[in-house]
Amino acid sequence: MPRTRRSSAALLAALLSIGLLAAPASAAPAAPDQSAPSATATLYGGQVQLQHLASGLVNPLGIVNAADGTNRLFVLEKRGTVRVIVNRQLQDGFFLDLRGVPGGISTGGERGLLGLAFHPSFETNRNVFAYFTDGDGDIQIGEFTANDDGGAAGADTYDSIFTIEHSAQSNHNGGQLMFGPDGFLYAFVGDGGGSGDPGANAQNDGVFLGKMLRLAPDLAGGASGGAWAKGLRNPWRASFDRANGDLWIADVGQGTWEEINRVSGNPSGVNYGWDRCEGPSPFEGSSGECAGYTGPVAWYANAGANCSITGGYVYRGASYLDFVGQYVVGDFCSGNIWTVDSANTAAGLQFHRAAGFMITSFGEDENGELYVADYGNGAIYKVVAPTFNDVIGSPFIDDITWLHYAGISNGCGGGSFCPTPNVRRDEMASFLARALLLPPSSTDHFSDDNGNIHEGNINAVADRGITLGCGGGNYCPDSPVTRDEMASFLARAENLPPPTRDWFWDDNGNIHEGNINAVADAGITLGCGGGQYCPGSATTREQMAAFIRRALTD
Fold first, then answer.
1. Strands across the sheet with 159-164, in order?
2. Does pLDDT of 26 surpass 80?
3. Are residues 118 and 188 in the same domain?
4. Relative to the CA of 479, which of 10, 31, 44, 524 has its CA 20 to 30 Å away?
């Protein structure tokens, strides 16, 4: 049964002092991930694109992962529910439906389910925390416990661990909730609503509104902690850089500036300046006063279609090297997406595109790949930065980009890769020769490739024993590579051992059957579905990219 709700008044005296906090119970500090990739290339304007991942959601407000090895994405819906995406598929049912918690949930205006954070030891203790507005409009930070397999958490496991009075106004609730690298739970609270912080809450050390809180949940329905930083208006999404622990906060402006704040080391007592300052300029403060606060590293005007910033993450995934080290951010109204170079914030915002929808949140998966939520249409997109201009619709976009970074392909010209045409046998020879770093050949093996631009690589793969041609001293350079031929190319290139089983039923008697089963053994292919391999089908350039990447990296 839920425990009795604790009021903020009862906690205030003990919890309010900035920096006077207990160690986080059962949440061992975790050092920043030093294996996270560093920036190695230059991102150009417009390179960041969006690839559709899933639809069917209702007003999504957040995207998080559980860091439990399942690679699930958890999507918060404003109404008080949490959905799950696995392998690009939205799952039926809810991971969490907190509409039945004592005190209920209010969802009018800016209220609703606003934040979700999985305990760093969720895989073993199954604790998850939610930030939402209750039926009275007050902010609740609650603890839930998932079932043994981590598949769902029931409303009947709810314990309220922190309450903040917020019934007067429905806006400026904040809502970001996340565990930091130090193992503490951080909550980002708005200034209480209204226009211009009428209660002067953000600078008032006697209230939790307009603050960043640092909490240590005791995993028994309570938490110790209190205010850690102040001077926030309506922080809408914050994140820690997984490479170095830097804290990034996007704070929604009053009507002039939308701002991005960053601090290193996450020290206590930081004052971000609201309501004395808005962005880089005085609001109620005097000229020159803003220099005394921790001001933003980047900002943009609340003008035109722009109205409300939505913060994101510094990209630390492994798929897009040009993107590494870039903080991505968007605007709720305009759908504009920018990046800020974390290594050179003075360069300001780099515009990429208008998403065409209301951006409510960015999210990060276990591998550091990024996602964005489309509020009105109930969709999630993957945020990508491919090196080619024609691969956004390809399911093999990451493989194609890897192929480019590996120096195996520069595309088909004009910044394109041409993903859907069939790959020819002469092209395949060049792809393999580059991938395997084959030395030049001194032997002319075939009679029908003379003058072909790939002739040198054709002879190189023949030297290696990867191909014997197509018969009669010919290579058939212009013919498409079929899927059975692809299997033999890769099996010979990787010198795969004989297969251990028969994987597919439609290749029986095929001269490449042994190699087809060998590449299946190696995890290079799962076939084309229904227990089939489709051996006679031509291989497209995008499929080829996936075959080669799996062969060389798995």
1. 113-118, 127-133, 139-145, 159-164
2. no
3. yes
4. 524
